[in-house]
Design a protein that fits this description.
Distance between the termini: 61 Å
Strand content: 25-35%
Radius of gyration: 22 Å
Structural class: alpha+beta
Shape: globular
Number of helices: 4
Number of strands: 17
Helix content: 10-25%
Length: 325
């Protein structure tokens, strides 16, 4: 009996070691991105470097000791835009729906962990240099589920923070949100600060064609546009670009159309579901007013560069509400 027990004990130890090794291997696969869909993707030199700093509005979140985080876009001097899932607000987290600031702050796991040390770093030389240009003061989000549900987060930031001394003199020119949805097959650019220098040394831009269907539902019409990354009309998929914008020219000036961050794979290609923003401007304006008292937003078609949508002026497109399902 003692021999049988000893043999069972040794076998149990061997089994536990094998199980532990399997768990470690699984974690390695997850962390190294081997769980990504097997699709056509870009792995090296994925775009044109923004050497003239034309797209200075593009930056990245910086959280924790390694200063990692998603892409963010300056849409005002003190307002940034990104994807809600970048702070942990998403269907897989089971912490949605979310339609306002207070709910976002209660449910966003990254906000709860890093709210006192959440920063924005310049995208020009990312990830070689991570120069802090702003501190996040407050957030608000619309996160309502898988597409066509929303995946949007905006934040109020301070460019004069204590850790912003080095980045205070970096000039950032914000980009307005588009007023209207562009015509089918409009030429566009994807602007992104890649997560690794192998994919791009600093901020880059990549040609896009807005040739996919614009989709939505009764609660969220014109919510997304599908982009097929086939390596022909649109480039191979660039992973690690959540929160980065696709922009086009409206009134001869670049404006934000939609955000990268969600999609599905089919037939060896990735289909990006751009989160559109033209129908979200009323909500965004209301949060800007709540944080700053300003009734105007920067605008591409206004002669002054500013346009007021408050209190009763109409938007160029219908504006979506946030419906909690």
């Amino acid at each position: 009996k003692k021999k049988i027990f000893g043999r069972c004990k040794k076998n149990s130890i061997k089994f536990m070691k094998k199980l532990l090794w399997i768990l470690v291997l699984c974690l390695f696969w997850f962390e190294t991105g081997l769980t990504k869909p097997k699709v056509l993707e870009c792995k090296k030199d994925c775009g044109t470097v923004d050497s003239n700093n034309e797209f200075s509005f593009q930056a990245r979140f910086a959280m924790g000791s390694d200063k990692k985080g998603c892409n963010v876009t300056f849409i005002e001097d003190d307002i940034i835009l990104t994807s809600a899932h970048c702070l942990g607000l998403g269907p897989e987290e089971k912490n949605i729906p979310c339609c306002d600031s207070e709910t976002a702050k209660k449910k966003a796991k990254d906000w709860k962990e890093f709210k006192n040390k959440m920063y924005v770093v310049d995208g020009k030389d990312y990830p070689m240099k991570k120069i802090i240009v702003a501190k996040v003061l407050d957030i608000s989000a619309r996160a309502t589920g898988w597409p066509p549900g929303y995946d949007i987060l905006i934040a109020h930031v301070d460019r004069n923070c204590k850790k912003c001394k080095k980045g205070k003199n970096i000039k950032i020119v914000p980009i307005p949100i588009a007023n209207k949805i562009p015509k089918h097959n409009t030429k566009a650019l994807h602007v992104v600060a890649p997560e690794t220098k192998k994919k791009g040394k600093g901020r880059i831009y990549i040609n896009h064609i807005l040739n996919g269907d614009i989709l939505g539902d009764d609660d969220a019409p014109s919510s997304i546009q599908v982009i097929k990354h086939d390596g022909k009309q649109n480039p191979p998929m660039l992973f690690g670009a959540s929160g980065s914008p696709v922009i086009f020219k409206e009134c001869e000036k670049y404006v934000v159309h939609g955000l990268h961050g969600r999609g599905y794979d089919e037939g060896g290609f990735m289909y990006e579901e751009l989160q559109l923003l033209q129908t979200q401007k009323k909500w965004i304006q209301s949060e800007i007013f709540r944080w700053t008292g300003r009734t105007e937003m920067i605008d591409s078609c206004s002669e002054t560069g500013l346009r007021s949508f408050m209190p009763n002026q109409e938007f160029d497109m219908f504006q979506n509400d946030c419906v909690k399902k």
